[in-house]
Amino acid sequence: MRDGNGNWWRQAVMYQLYPRSFRDGNGDGIGDFAGAIRSLPYLKELGVDGVWLNPIYKSGFVDGGYDVIDYRDVAEQFGTLDDFKALVDAVHEQGMHIIIDIVPNHTSTDHPWFRKALASAPGSPERDLYIFRDGRGEHGELPPTDWLSKMGGPAWQRVPDGQWYLHIYAKEQADLNWNSPIVRREFEDILRFWGDLGVDGFRVDVANGMAKQIDGRDDLDDWTVDDDHCPDGRHPLWDRDEVHEIYRGWRRVFNEYDPPLCAVAEISIVPEHEHRYASKDELGQVFNFDLQKAMWSYREYRDAIDMDLASARRSRSSATWVLSNHDCPRAASRYGLAQVTTSQPFVFAWDWLLRDGTSYPEDIEAGTRRARAAALIELALPGTVYIYQGDELGLREVPDIPWDRLEDPTAFDTVRQQSKKGRDGCRVPLPWDSADMPRPAAWSPRFGEGASFGFSVTDGVRSDGNRQAGRAEPHLPQPLWFADYAIDRQSADRRSMLNLYRDAIRLRSRLFAADRARTEPVDVDWLDIDGSSGRRDGADGQYGGVLAFARQGGDGRMVACVTNFCADSIDLPAGEVLLASGPLDGYGKLPQDTTVWVVLE
Asked: Using CA atoms, how far apart are residues 585 and 600, in angstroms rounded to an integer?
């Protein structure tokens, strides 16, 4: 049952749970609702306020569940609707909240609507639910535009009668026509369906899409699918003014519940437009990805924080902070690679992945040290923190999964300059129990088989009272080095990444409890010691600096978060040290790539 606090999400710590890879409760090698229910005490001990589940719907799983066949049913591999309701109830019994993905831009090509569209004539009402168009050329043999999809290859797919349908993503993900009132009414009813089942809100996938202008324009090939940062609303696919009418309708649905349902928009747009999606009349909050995209440098971190706090002030909402998610290489590996300025985020990491992690050295020690420091920065900031599963363990990317064992369509559909290995390296099933140690796999001594580090568990009970590990292989292979990152080992190590997260979340909840009651954006005070060093003494020749801000604690004292991006250790501000991401030097100074929380005198 939902609690009565409609503002719980504004200063929450959320845990992103990728269902296929979190915990497998029936031993088939795929995570499910039973495994998630069994593992909720772990999340309760971690201290998070809620969980966000990636898609749970009936799906072809061409793209990790984002190709939805039925929006009112769950994938059989996860369980049943009753199992999902049990999960919702269990989350609420633990005093936490639950939000789920909603995927409104496209459906699976196996969705009943699309099957009917294929069986119907061009121009029919059934086809009007999607974006079907005639082709170019003498016989319509050329696609309506030259766009390439985000997954690689043409963004249009031809059907037997000669028409083409638009798919911005995989060809199995047909874009819906949001000009249709039928589509709009259907999704409002879908929101009510899940609201009635007890979910607390939604993460809206591709929220800056949906509204499109394909007809009546002769400039479509002047744009590309990747041109999503258009400042004037003229792009035919992205961030169009018409999308806000859709979300105002959704807000009316959210407000039918007491407390109202919450939502957070996944968007990639110019920062000046974020406030419209995050307004109280629309979705209420947006994902700010600037911190996730930042290199490990003072300037990029300071700029990201300034931009996202400014966005929250414009929308009168709360900022969101993300270091990793299911769509990008893990932070611990990104920070362990060379911090090189590139034209687009993660270019260096994607290139490293494409070559199975062999093209550039990964400094594991530096990456871990920086990921620990980044976690304390993120958890000190006001707003909502989203922790991707496994980041609390310091998991690194798994770059060397054999290509014949990958699942992400990006690996198979991208070509030429678009080529990527995909996102499976950050989606490998979590390691829970180092005692359930796999043997080296026959196909690679770097990976395991025959066990799953406690990821797959059955209902059987061992003689020692613990769950009997299942025998199914995880849907993605686990490297043997996962043993060092397993939850059981980290729980027993007071200096582990897991215990750092537990301590920081516990402190955050206690220190800034008063901010939870605020409905206005919470800001930070920048300290005098904050600033660039003016020298290239940061990571890999980046300009160094000291990132230093403070927030008022519940007892009126100021709590500072200080991070050293310089090569030399720096003096700490006067006060009581509460928590540090790593050891201080022998003179009580803050070393490079280390963050500390201090109650100021």
From this structure: 20
* pLDDT tens digits along 470-513: 578 999 999 999 999 999 999 999 999 999 999 999 999 999 99
| CB neighbourhood size of 135 (10 A) | 15
**172, 175, 205, 407: the active-site residue:** 205
- Please tell me the pTM assigned to this model: 0.96
The verdict on whether 392 is a catalytic residue reads: no
CATH number of the domain within which 119 lies: 3.90.400.10
Closest CA to 418 of 280, 240, 560, 226: 226
Alpha helix (H) residue ranges in 321-440? 331-334, 347-354, 364-380, 410-413
Residue 152 has a pLDDT of 85
pLDDT at 470: 52
In angstroms, rounded to a whole number, what is the distance separating the alpha carbons of residues 598 and 601?
9
Q: How many angstroms separate the CA atoms of 388 and 274, rounded? A: 22
CA distance 439 to 520: 53
Please indicate, yes or no, if residue 499 is contained in any of the structural domains: no
3-state SS record for 463-495: CCCCEEECCCCCCCCCEHHHHHHCHHHHHCCCC
* Domain count across the chain: 1
Please tell me the predicted confidence (pLDDT) of residue 466. 52
Q: Is the pLDDT of residue 465 over 60?
A: no
Residue whose entry in the numeric block shows the structure tokens 């795929």: 30
Domain presence at residue 126: yes
- Geometric angle at alpha carbon 398, from 397 and 399, rounded to 5°: 100
| pLDDT for residue 548 is more than 50 | yes
pLDDT surpasses 60 at 467: no
Q: Kindly report the CA angle at 343 between 101 and 427, in degrees rounded to 5?
A: 35
Residue 205 known to be catalytic = yes
Are the C-beta atoms of 175 and 117 separated by less than 8 Å? Answer: no
Other CB atoms within 10 Å distance of the CB of residue 101: 18
CB atoms within 10 A of CB 268: 15
Residue range of the domain that includes 157: 112-175
**Which member of 101, 200, 239, 266 is catalytic?**
266
Q: pLDDT value at position 392? A: 98
